[in-house]
Specification:
By secondary structure, this protein is of the alpha/beta class. 36% of the residues lie in helices and 19% in strands. The strands form four sheets. Strands 1-2-6-3-7-14 form a six-stranded mixed beta sheet, with helices on both faces. Strands 4-5-16-15 form a four-stranded antiparallel beta sheet. A hairpin with a 7-residue loop joins strand 15 and strand 16. The longest helix has 21 residues. It binds zinc ion (ZN). Zinc ion (ZN) binds next to loops.
Amino acid sequence: MTTALEAAKERLREAIIEREQELVELLQALVRQPSTLGNEAGAQEVVANYLREGGIEPDVWEIDEADLRSKARAANTGVPYAGRPNVAGTLRGVGGGQSLILNGHIDVVPVEPISDWSYDPWGAEIVGGRMYGRGADDMKSGVAVNLFITRLIKELGIQLQGDLIVQSVIEEESGGNGALSAALRYQADGALVTENMGEEYMLSEMGPFWFDITVTGLSEHAANAHKGVNAIEKMVPIMAALRELEAEFDANRHPDFADFEHPANLNFGIIQAGDWRSVVPRECKLGCRFAYFPGTTWEEMDARLRATIDKVAQADPWLREHPPVISYTGLNAEPSTISVDSPIIQTLSAAYKAETGEPIYGSHATGTTDARFFRNVSKIPATCFGTIGQNCHAANEWVELDSLHRVARVVGAFTLDWCGVADE
Ligand SMILES: [Zn+2]
């Protein structure tokens, strides 16, 4: 006897195969909208229209930055939110199942330098089984899969038990406020972010963040430099202490990162000091990127950093009187993790195995994805899974079309397994 679930999965799978050209065309329509930071409106209109044409009324909302800040550690891109909405659509379940969020980001990174591209970055050209274009892989592929699956379930009249919520959010590439806003607006029993994971899934992610350190010295004519305090030189022991902190983090790493060569990467990205060769510089500002491991809270991270700087300052009579100032700006992502035994991982693994006959592999990231907001803010199990491609954040980005279709079949089966299907 075939259950309602098995029958629905077979119908959905057949429809995905039969109508795969629709998925390709949807992805092309999305790639042809150059949705870099601040320019997401056109692509989000494609998303909203696709839902509307499928009989799903889209929820289109602009992010309220003040509201985000009052609830979480939000990023700040400095770009106003008017006219740059998030979009979501919901298929209501009849009850008795688990609800699911299928999330993807619509924003893409810039295409410069364009001269490095052999294809139009906004052309969505198909050559040799690949679609080329910015966002073709990262991750309009996943956004298209999520929308396509949701509309097919609706059109086929498959009655889910749990609610299915599909989301297209902005600003993943610049701090994550789109997903943060979505995580605060919608709650579910699990979330799948269809990032271009090369058909693997995401377990642990580190918490990359930015910070600045400012040291104040005493300006003086260079001929009397010994009477001044050189702010650049006062920064040197601080840089050395930060390198020691980095080594300490690497030595005490989270076990998920045991095989990584060097996960806790501290980068001195910007240094600004001085105006003139013959003047002792009065101020030195150092801009850094660092990342911490799951299991450490932000409060602990902040305290470790302040203690490291303070130790240097206490050993130096000038810095003791003129303490260095730490400030946090821009990226501030918390680490996150999920157990391989979590039901969402198990359900996804089973769907992948059933579709491909192959086991799926989990991976860990020294960077971050939007999955962290579902894990850390919504407190729900979340992971990432998506297409095989290459050159995201570089010239000639492409997605493999066979992988796009395979991911659609896996996400389709996973969605029905997770949400459950009502008996006819
Ligand atoms: Zn991405």
